[in-house]
Each structure stands twice: as C-alpha cells, then as structure tokens.
Design brief:
The chain is α/β, with parallel strands linked by helices. It is 38% helix and 19% strand. The chain is built from ten helices and eleven strands.
Length: 286
C-alpha cells in the first residue's frame, strides 16, 4: 500500500515478528444493529465504510463473532473478500449474546473451537491472522481457554493470538504459555485504568488496541483542554483524542469504529494531526 495513503501517517508496527499493520485501524463493532444486535439499517452503507477504510490505507480491521452476533464478520466478507494483500482481519471469541446490549463470557475450550471455526467460515478464510480471547471467563481456567487456542494455532487455523480485557497478571501468565502479540483493553483520555498493561506492552513490543478510544469525559467540557485544542487545530475533539492516543505510546493501535464514511475519514485523518508537548501535557493532566 502506498505510503501517501492517509492511514500511513500513523506509522506501522509489526506484530509477532511478521504481521505489519498500520497504527490506525478500524473497529467493525458498529456495523450492526442497535445494541450491537442484528443487521444494520443499511447494509450497503456498512459495505461502503469498510471499502473506504481500505482505500484510506487502513490494513487492520477488528471484529468479533459476538458483534451482531455473527453480523459484523459476514459484512466484512461481503464487502472485502477476496481480501487485498496485506489486509489483516482480526477477530475475537469468548463472549456470547442473549440480546441487545447483553454479553456473557464463555471460555470453555469446546466453545472457543466452535467459535473460531465458525469465524473462519463467515470470514471466508483458511487462517485468522490475529485471533483474540475476548475476555477471561472466571468459570474456566485461563490455561484451558488458551490451550484450545494454542491447538488451533498448531492446526494452522490461527496465525497469532491476542488477549482482550486482561490485567498485567493475566497477560504475564498467558505469555508463559504462548506468545501473545497484542492486547485489547478499554483505554481513552478519560479512562486510563490500563496504563500498567499498556506500559508492559510497550516494554515487550506488544500491540495495544484501545477500545472505546475517543471517550473523553470531563476533558471534553466547554473550555476544557480537549475543546480548546480541537478549536486551535480546527479539528474535532475525536480527532484530538485519537492523536493523543497515537502519541501516548508507539505500540498504540487505535481501532475507532463508525457506521459513517464521513466519521471514518475524520478518524483516519487524525493520524496526521500533530500535538505539541504543551498540548500533550494539558491532555495528560486533564
């Protein structure tokens, strides 16, 4: 992909030694119905968003079998298969759904195998480049859950393994079992509770995919630092929030999601936004 594409301004990093991804990705959770449940109101619009993301140079699309459920993965395949060279489709398993806005953990090995193999069929892939355990199930030993993902990797169905919604302790335990290439935790200007996980990822060269990346809380108040900086740069607060993430750590891989082409273009444009040291300090302080 040419370096002049907008997403290229975010720079790239390599996961697992062989998976090169740009640091501005796309999260496909919102290409579904309300409550992340069922089909989107306009399927063609969802296809257009995905295709535009690739046109802008995004080469990491993140999804999960629970988005819809199954809907997001199907839409990705409809819009983008056959996949262009270099495009990484990352998905997750380990959560089940019982209705709009309802999420339940299931880390049983048999469920994870069924989930992974079903994702392969929906995405029309022979191997998933990055398969992430969506959440640790407190009713199942993490070693048992990861053991099944290790077997799937040995069978050639998974290329690399990632984790989501984990603590430093869980990440360190997992890395004793198998190489972990990425972590996806909630992280944004107003919620930095995973600072310790992010710092560990930075030390070890693991990708950190912040979910809910543009939330800003009190920082977005009128006259606050986010409001002031966005006005000075003539950009949106969301663009400043994304630029802050990219500058926060070289292993940060934001995956902002949207169902709008306009918002997608704004999000990707944040890759080129430069904040000075004073602006970063102002945002860091809140």
């Amino acid at each position: 992909m040419p370096s002049e594409l907008p997403a290229a301004a975010a720079g790239s990093m390599t996961l697992g030694g062989d998976l090169v991804v740009r640091r501005m990705g796309f999260g496909a959770m919102r290409l579904t119905g309300q409550g992340i449940w069922g089909d989107p109101p306009d399927r063609a619009r969802a296809h257009a968003v995905l295709r535009r993301a690739v046109e802008l140079g995004v080469n990491l699309v993140d999804t999960a079998d629970s988005y819809g459920p199954e809907v997001s993965e199907r839409i990705i395949a409809e819009a983008l298969h056959p996949y262009p060279a270099g495009l990484v489709i990352a998905t997750k398993g380990g959560l089940t759904r019982s209705g709009p806005g309802q999420w339940h953990r299931n880390g049983h090995p048999d469920h994870l195998r069924q989930a992974c193999e079903a994702s392969l069929r929906r995405l029309r892939m022979e191997r998933i480049d990055l398969y992430q355990l969506h959440a640790i199930d407190p009713a199942v030993k993490m070693e048992d859950s990861l053991g099944e993902l290790i077997r799937l990797r040995e069978e050639g169905k998974i290329r690399h393994i990632g984790l989501s919604n984990v603590s430093v302790d869980q990440l360190q335990r997992a890395r004793k079992l198998v190489p972990i290439v990425s972590v996806q935790n909630r992280y944004n200007l107003s919620d930095r509770g995973s600072d310790d996980v992010l710092d560990l990822c930075a030390r070890e060269g693991l990708g950190f995919l912040p979910w809910y990346p543009v939330a800003a809380g009190e920082l977005a108040r009128p006259g606050g630092p986010l409001d002031r900086i966005s006005r000075e740069h003539a950009v949106t607060p969301a663009q400043v929030a994304l630029a802050w993430l990219l500058l926060r750590s070289p292993v940060m891989l934001p995956i902002p999601g949207t169902s709008s082409v306009q918002h997608l273009e704004e999000n990707v444009a944040a890759a080129a936004l430069q904040l000075n040291d004073a602006e970063m300090r102002s945002l860091d302080r809140g």
